[in-house]
Amino acid sequence: RRVLFRSGVRKGRQAIWTRASQAAEEGEWDDVLQSLDEWHDHSTEDDNEDSLVRLSDGTLTSGRLAAARLLTQLPDEQRREREDRVGGRARTLLDQAVQSGDLRELAVAASRYFGTHAGYDAANRLATRLLDNGDFALAARWLLLLRDADAVVSREPAWQKRTQLVLSVTGLGSDEKNP
Predict the structure, then answer these.
(1) CA–CA separation, 109 and 94 (whole Å)
(2) Which of 83, 96, 122, 169 is close enough to 87 for a disulfide, judged by CB 3.0 to 4.6 Å?
(3) Helix or strand or coil: residue 60?
(4) What is the pLDDT of residues 131-162, one digit of tens each?
(5) Whole-prediction pTM value?
(6) What is the number of H-type helices and E-type strands within the chain?
(7) Alpha-carbon torsion 102, 106, 107, 109, what sign?
(8) Contact call for residues 1 and 102 (beta carbons, < 8 A)
(9) What's the Cα-to-Cα distance from 110 to each of 21, 27, 162, rounded to whole Å?
(10) By the 8 A CB rule, do 17 and 39 touch?
(11) C-alpha–C-alpha distance, residues 129 and 151, integer Å
């Protein structure tokens, strides 16, 4: 089984994450997107492995999940502009990930392009693959992100039932906001 997650906070990536989260607090969404692109570029240099980031409250969490959570905060106008600007790249990356069957590539597509149609699709496929692998807690986090982002797939009754089951198995509930 390949490692998807590298333990420990990596200082360079943490500084980029801090810059992105501060820009979000200030409503500087172009800076958020630029910082997250830089953060993901560092992930690619690290063989697409996830790493921990420290949130403003001191909590450590998956950088990929935190980046996707930050993208759920994008205002509608920026989300539409981003879809127009990177939607094609997102779809290409998702198609490559699906074709290769590489879980890491799917995680990168989900995290980097969350908020786009292809990013939502990648996150849903990732959650399904994680469930298939028995990684219920991580799958639940991605399902919660999709639900909180009001992704189209999250409105389907079958998806809602599956998510409800996964949340009950993992003990994660409706008040769960920070992955």
Answers:
(1) 6
(2) 83
(3) strand
(4) 999 999 999 999 999 999 999 999 999 999 99
(5) 0.81
(6) 8, 3
(7) positive
(8) no
(9) 19, 23, 19
(10) yes
(11) 18
Locate 39 and state its tokens.
């953060």
Cα-Cα-Cα-Cα torsion 68, 138, 45, 7, nearest 10 degrees, comes to 120
Cβ-based burial of 101 (10 A; exposed 0-12, middle 13-18, buried ≥19): exposed
DSSP 3-state of 56: coil
Sequence letter at residue 112: R
In the block, residue with structure tokens 């198609």: 95
pLDDT tier at 1 (50, 70, 90 boundaries)? very low
Sheet with strand 50-54: strands edge to edge: 5-9, 50-54, 60-62
Sole residue written with tokens 């990732």: 126
Query: How far apart are the C-alpha atoms of 106 and 109, rounded to whole Å?
Result: 5
What is the rounded distance in angstroms from the CA atom of residue 179 to the CA atom of residue 177? Answer: 6
Contact 13, 42 (CB under 8 A): yes
DSSP 74: S
DSSP 116: B
Give me the amino acid identity at 61.
Answer: T
